Sequence to fold (531 residues):
Amino acid sequence: MYVGGLGAAAGGTTSFVGQAPAVDAPPRQAPYERDQIASRAASGAARGLLSTPAGGGGGRPSARRRRPAGRVAALDFAAVATAAAVGYLVRFGFAASSALPSDLVVALALPFAWIVAGAANRAYDARFLGSGTTEFRSLGRTFLAVVATLAFVSYAGGLEIARGFAVLTLPLALVLTAGLRYLTRLRLVQRRRAGQAMERVLLVGRAASLPALVAAMRRDPAAGLQVVGACLPSDEADDTSLRTALAGLGLPVLGGLDDVRDIAALHATDSVAVVAGDVGSGSVRTLGWQLEGTGTELVVSSGLTDIDGHRLHLQSVGGAPLLRLDPCRFTGGRHLVKTTFDRVVALSAIVVLSPLLIAVAVLVRCTSRGPALYLQERIGRNGRSFRMVKFRSMRTGAHDEVAQLTGANEADGPLFKIPDDPRVTSVGKWLRRFSVDELPQLFNVVAGSMSLVGPRPPLPSEVAQYENDVQRRLLVKPGLTGLWQVSGRSDLSWEDSVRLDLHYVENWSLALDIQLLFKTALVVVKAKGAY
Fold:
């Protein structure tokens, strides 16, 4: 049983009003009536749709999960075998006359040892493939386990292993496996965005709790969770108004709590997601027993929203699972590491990109009147103002024309956005399209007023309109890029921009920063949502 996984990313409101999420293809179902459910369950059992208790067969959803996990394991084996072969040939050459028998044994055994270590560290758990960071953390633990095992065996057994062979082979194995997994993930995410390779999920909970969970799943199609319907407590299952409201969100009510096992089998679901607090602990335990042997996993949503899994820790106290939530930390060693990383990378980028920076500055200066750089007051960490620097992409005096263009503003909230802004110069359109105008902010990062990754740097006029919750954006430095940059850029609504920024503030990590930097490069190349 996995506790706290699905609700952690949920966001938005639980109200039925004003929501219009994308509607999944309706599952194969007729309107819910308890006698019809019983009839279909009986016919499903006759057709072999219902799984028998543990050891009784069935388990089609589990088989669907094992296939991608098996492919990933095969790719890992091939990658490690390739790394071992390359390391062996580079170190010893084709003649390999200088190699010891122990070196050859290690080269042959390494792919098998990697698979065993990966299985022990859940690197092939299909539930975590294609989404989140758990897959790559497991891969890192696998690498460390192999290194530690090789060091122990070498020392305890007195084996002589060429250092050059080990130093080349093991890191190369990690790079190759990580690279192949990343390419596999890109392909899997592409298929999931097209509605393929999805995990079918049946939701269980009260009607008021389900819309936020559904919205979270649909907002992240890369997670591969497709909602087939919902089962409500008995006091809500027959409420026509609730069923109609949920159906309007593309969430058909398929039955009540007593029908979950039968409905899960009839709709070939991979998992049943129960909202914590909506169903009694005794009912959750009973439901887990009922799903044993069916190949359908029980998932319990914690009910928490916009909290990353790495901040949650499960502790069992007297048989009761408790979730411990790490507090947000905005000072200390982790922030020192982030600041150091920011400044080193930014300074290195300035050195590498200096020819481009000089060329763009000359181009801007020669194609329109005014300076090459544009300085603008922005609000940084803890509400302190700073001067953000950009390449000038508009004509001089553009800020004074805002009042005249208010009617053309297409943004909501305090933002001001015009897709075809007449103030933008011809060169400025190109700079904005590929975010080249943002590159001088690297100097802000080196100076310490900005970070490489963080919330969008706001104007003083925007901060003046912040409500209490939005003020949390100012607890960290604004970023050159962030979740907003890789999730739509200027196409985002004010509400989505705030949600993404607050999610980053609550859950930032150096690993997330590195991931967002790589994603930013892909988004900039596509030039989507930039104006």
